[in-house]
Amino acid sequence: MDLGFLLHALIPSWNSVAVLVVFFAYLAIAGSMLPGKLVPGVTLQDGSRLHYRCNGLLALLLLVGLFGVGSKMNLLSPTVISDRGLELLSTTFMFSFLTMVVLYATGCRSQSKGSSLKPHITGNLMHDWWYGIQLNPQFMGIDLKFFFVRAGMMGWLLINLSVLAKNVEDGSLSQSMILYQLFCVLYILDYFVHEEYMTSTWDIIAERVGFMLVFGDLVWIPFTFSIQGWWLLNNKVVLTLAAAIANCFVFLIGYLVFRGANKQKHIFKQNPKALIWGKPPKVIGGKLLASGYWGIARHSNYLGDLLLALSFSLPCGISSPVPYFYPIYLFILLIWRERRDEARCTEKYKDIWAEYCSFVPWRIFPYLY
Ligand code: NDP
């Protein structure tokens, strides 16, 4: 691809703005109106709690249904996204940038003393803009953090479906594309089936809404997690049966560890006496779970996620490093995140955390790290 073509493809068009506006409008309306369990978030420092309407699965199924029906009735092309991937990427990037400018300006003016909206201004413009200054900014009653992460995950699926439609249209649907699509759709569906577990994750409870989070959710997740799909559009891979079966196993094991670990922590937080793997849990200092996956490594959930990420890339074979962008990036991110979480937990739990670390010495990879 020559540079001139690339730059031209990156220029946003009104069509890409329209796609984005329709998508965000749908998410705002569906998120506010569709029924869903109202889940209380963690208690914030000021004692308040946000409540999250977990209707993401219904919103996603309806969105995919509308996308399918719209395509069938020729109201839109199923390749509407894959035909303008680069311009959608630049449009979303600009949107994230502008959103962050607005959030930064409104955040700086906030007089709120509550945990959600109190501005945290260090005076370092870059730092504040990157990490954000408010924990839970809202727009028209919509919690933006929850909204953005949802948009990222749903956007990823929409991109994948449009790439799949393009592959079918080209008449070159391959086993690799089917495997990649299947793993991603299961992962994304599972995410929304368990959406309430997200309410206790680091992003939701601890991260402020800065460019890192807005860009990460809106641009990074949908556009880089789908690189494998884009790559398979232009590259043919022939997988042996053994390779395909091994790939399914990596996905399955990754899924069991990822979901199992996140579920055990969530259940433990709700009921510290709940059985873990059929036995009473080992609890340190009355607060930290040290059995099940959390007795094997202090972040087994990251290990599961890394295996899943690898399984999304393995269908692309090993001829190019490009489809391995996501697992490599995730590896770096989770190592960094684990360090940040470790620092947070050391400060929060003090001696109890030290005791947990000596009981469970491995951070992510048992016997390795
Ligand atoms: P965790 O869900 O692991 O949350 C960490 C928090 O859990 C800690 O700060 C602490 O908070 C609590 N905790 C830690 N250890 C224990 C324990 N033994 N017992 C009880 N509570 C404990 O981390 P994340 O929010 O970072 O990740 C959630 C999921 O999201 C992971 O599976 C991760 O892989 C995935 N993820 C995926 C990304 C992607 O790009 N694909 C990016 C980031 C995350 P507390 O104060 O509540 O006790």
Structure description:
- The protein has 369 residues and is mainly alpha-helical.
- It is built from 14 helices and 6 strands.
- The strands form 3 sheets. A two-stranded antiparallel ribbon has the order 1-2.
- It is globular, with a radius of gyration of 21 Å.
- NADPH dihydro-nicotinamide-adenine-dinucleotide phosphate is lined by residues 201-203, 258, 262, 265, 268, 288-289, 294, 299, 301-302, 305, 330, 333, 337, 341, 344-345, 348.
Please give a handful of descriptors for the protein shown.
single chain, about 375 residues, about 60% helix, globular, binds NADPH dihydro-nicotinamide-adenine-dinucleotide phosphate
Number of helix segments? 14
Mean pLDDT: 92
**Biggest β-sheet: strands ordered side by side in the sheet:** 1-2
Shape: globular
Largest sheet geometry: 2 strands, antiparallel
Q: Report the bound ligands by name, code or SMILES.
A: NADPH dihydro-nicotinamide-adenine-dinucleotide phosphate
Query: Helix proportion of residues, in percent?
Result: 55-70%
Structure classification: mainly alpha
Order of helix and strand elements from N to C terminus: HHEEHHHEEHHHHHHEEHHH
The radius of gyration computed from the alpha-carbon positions, rounded to a whole number of angstroms, is: 21 Å
Distance between the termini: 40 Å
Q: Which spans have pLDDT < 50 for at least 5 consecutive residues?
A: none
Count of β-strands: 6
Percent in strands: under 5%
